[in-house]
Amino acid sequence: MEYIEKEGYTLCYEAYGKGSPIVFIHPPGMGRKTFIKQLSLQLNMKVVLLDLRGHGDSTISSSAMLDDFVEDIETVRNHLGVEKIFLFGYSAGGMIAQEYTFRFPRSVKGVILSGAYPIIQNKILEWEHRIGIFMAKSTPKILARILAVSHFSNDEEQQLIYNQIVKSNQNVWSQYYEMALNYSCIHKLNDWNIPLCLLYGKRADYINGHVKWYYTIPNVQIEWINKANHQLPTRHYRRINPIIEAFVNKHE
Description:
By secondary structure, this protein is an alpha/beta fold. 40% of the residues lie in helices and 19% in strands. The protein has an eight-stranded mixed β-sheet, with helices on both faces. It holds the Pfam family Hydrolase_4. InterPro entries: AB_hydrolase_fold, AB_hydrolase_sf, Hydrolase_4. It comes from Oikeobacillus pervagus.
C-alpha cells in the first residue's frame, strides 16, 4: 500500500503487476476494494486501486470537489512516474474519468467506463443519487450495507467492502453523489479523441439510455453484457475482465 502525503490530506493507493498502468476509479463511498475482482489483471498490466480523498484509507479534513478528485488521479500518475495511464471509471466514477481525460488528454492512453453517463437524464438514476446524498449523511451504515450486499454475494467480500465504505467521510461521500447528480459534459463529447470503451449491463435500463450521448465519438467500443445489471466489476468480472485486457493490449 502506498501513501502520498499532501497538504492537509493523505492519498492511499495500491499497485499490482507490471506494464501499462490502469487506474480504477470507484463510485461514491465505496473505495478501492470495489475492484478486488480486477486484481487478476495484474498478470498483464499494472492494476492501480485508489481511494479518492475522503474515502477508505485516504484522508481529508472536511470536503472535496470534482477538481480535487481529478487532482487525485494526476497525483497518483505522477507518483507512479509514468507519462500516460489508462482509466477505468465505474458508475459515478466515470464522471471523474471523463473530466480527467478532458483536462489531461495527453496523459491518457484510453478510457473504459462501466455504467457511464455524461449527464443524468433518468428519474430513477436521479433519485438514486438524491437518496445517496441523504443516506450518506444520515444513515451511512445502512447505505454501506446496501452497497455491500448489492455488489457482492460472498459474506466475506460483503464485510470487506462494508468495512471499507464506513471509513468514508460522510460529507465527501454525500458531495460526491451531488457532484454526479449535477455533472454534465455533453457539450464536450464532440471533442473527445481518446480511445473509449463503454460497458453496460443489459438489465440496467435506467442507465443504458445514456449511451446515446456517446454515439458521436469516433470508433467508440460499446459492449453489452447479457443478463447483467449495473454491478459489472463485482458480479460480472469474468466477462468484463477479458474486455479490459483486450482494450489495454490494443491501445498500449
